[in-house]
Structure formats: C-alpha cells, structure tokens
Give the backbone structure.
Amino acid sequence: MDEVFKALADASRRSLLDRLHAKNGQTLNELCDGLAMTRQAVTKHLGILEAANLVTTLRHGREKLHYINPVPIHQIGERWIRKFERGKLAALSELKRQLEKRDE
Amino acid sequence: MSKPEKSNLDPRNFKPAIVYTIYIASTPEKVWEALTTAEFSRKYFSGHAVEVDQRIGGAFIMRTPDGALHISGEVIECEPPRKLTVTFNVNWPALVEKLGPTLVTYEIEPAGDAVKLTMLQSHDRDISDDILSGGRAGWPAILSSLKSLLETGQALAIEMQPPERMLAALKEMGIGTP
C-alpha cells in the first residue's frame, strides 16, 4: 500500500492516470502526445505506476497498451472510506462540483 | 456428454476495454477453483453461481441467487490453472444483438508467494463509457471480495448500488433490463 500512496504523490503520475481515465488502453506514443514530459520521463512514471499496480500493461497484437487499474484505490476506499458515511460524502462531493461549476 | 459445438469467434478480434489486476496470497489452483465453482462464486460474486464445462466450446453460465440464468456463454480458451476466456453475455433481451458479444478473460500468473490475477473485459466494437460504467463499478468489488475470501476465508460484504448509469444507457438503446 505504501507504493500506491508514493505513486499517487506526484502530479505528473496523477495526470497520466487522468489521461488513461479519459481514454483507457493507450500506447506509450499516445500517452506522450501533447504532454510537456520527455518520453523517458513518461516511461519512468508508467513503471512506477505499474509497480504500484495502478497501471496494467498488456500486448494487443503488436502494441503494448496501458490500462488504469483502480483495484488498489478501491481497496483503500474499502479500508477507510466505507467506514464513514459514503452517501453523505458523495453528496458533499456533488455540492462542491456544482458550486465550482458556476465559476467556469 | 455430447461434444460441444464450437463457435467461430476469434478472440484476436476483441480489444480489452477494462483490465483489472489484483495480487492474491494463494495458489493458481485455488484461484482457478474460486473462479470456476459455484461454492466459491456465491460468496464473492453477489450470490451468483458459476458453472463451467471446462473445455473449449463448453458452456459457461452464471445464475442469480434465485436460480435464474443471468449469463450464458461459451468457453473460448481454457488452460487450467492459467487462463480462461469465456463469452460473458448477459441474458437481457436484444443485448448481444446491439452490443455484440462480451469476452471475459482471467489470467493467472504465479508472483512470488502470491498470484497475479488479471481480468479483462473485451469487445469487438467501441462500447460507450455509460455501458462500461457497470463493469467498472462491479469488477473491482468482485475481485477484492474474491481476494478476501481466499486470504481470510471471508468474502467482503460490499453494498453495491444498482448500476443506474449503465441501465439507463441500455434502456435508451432498446435493450430490456430487469
């Protein structure tokens, strides 16, 4: 679990996860596209995410695809968040989202 | 039993839409047993009972707790205790006709003292995020519960909300839902 928190404690890695969340199953080239990071940096960050089991890679034909793996985050949720009241937390998140939308 | 009739579905034409990995302190044989027997699946798969005729072309079915046929599929790849691919078609009217078949693959690899279990949900066409939201919500809970069952003998009692977003999207496509 330490690895999960360490992997998430980096804005570049979180942005890579955001990109996979928006479009799952991307190649390294697709992930690098439009990012202000070198290919080497992206490769290194993906390695850390994969070691933390937040990203799973698989071969599809000749391509290596990257998939977001939310299972460790789910386990964190089960361990800590479910003990609180999830319904109320969801309502608060929704309230925050609605209020922040007005400023856009 | 009569020889099962093989469909000519080629898994290479399917692209994974959802890929989830979990590490379990267990053996490949135990994980295989948990994935393929009703005794286990009832505990971690929201009460659903799995039945697999473990040969290519064999039947793969899953029943709801009241015994109704929920998933009816076919074994596409079967290499115990390493890999199982099945068609995972939910028995809702017009679903397969509109969305095409769904493939589910389980890959089991030894990883030190643990086992790496990877689950893939694949389709032969693009499927909307609304439809995929059902699997995205369900599979992490199912896999976490399977892990708990094998490691502690106790599955997780996870309270699942009905997959409203997926159900609404299916309804919009004219697919019958319960």
In short: The beta strands of chain B are 15-24, 49-52, 59-63, 69-79, 83-87, 102-111, 114-123. Chain B touches chain A through 19 residues (CB under 8 Å). Residues 129-152 of chain B form the longest helix (24 residues).
